[in-house]
């Protein structure tokens, strides 16, 4: 699509932006300059969402274990 200069490592570019490291050593061509910030915002949102889901699953598992322990003591 011509978003980056020839010879660019696209996987590296994607990971640097997705993880919001922002080294700035690989930049898209001028008409695609918003690609980096949009990828970074997506990365922040998805890392936050993933953390929330993992926390919810662990909390539900801990509550189920607590309920199981209470029933076995009764």
Question: Strand pairing plus helix content: what structural class?
Answer: mainly alpha
How big is the Rg? 21 Å
Coarse shape: rod-shaped
Unreliable segments of 5+ consecutive residues: none
Report the total helices. Answer: 2
Find the count of extended strands (DSSP E, 2+ residues).
Answer: 0
Sheet having the most strands: none
Q: Which series of helices and strands comes N to C?
A: HH
The average pLDDT value, as a whole number, equals 88
- Measured as a percent range, the helix fraction is 55-70%
Distance between the termini: 66 Å
Name its key features.
74 residues; mainly alpha
Detailed description of the structure:
This protein is mainly α. It has one domain. It is 65% helix and 0% strand. It contains two helices and no strands. It has helices spanning 10-18, 35-73. Helix 1 (10-18) crosses helix 2 (35-73). The N and C termini lie far apart (66 Å). The mean pLDDT is 88.
What's a concise summary of this model?
This protein is mostly helical and 74 residues long. It has one domain. Helix content is 65%, strand content 0%.
């Amino acid at each position: 699509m011509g978003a980056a200069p020839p010879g660019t490592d696209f996987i590296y570019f994607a990971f640097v932006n997705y993880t919001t490291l922002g080294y700035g050593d690989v930049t898209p061509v001028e008409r695609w300059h918003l690609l980096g910030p949009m990828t970074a915002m997506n990365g922040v949102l998805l890392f936050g969402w993933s953390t929330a889901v993992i926390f919810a699953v662990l909390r539900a598992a801990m509550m189920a274990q607590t309920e199981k322990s209470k029933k076995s003591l009764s």
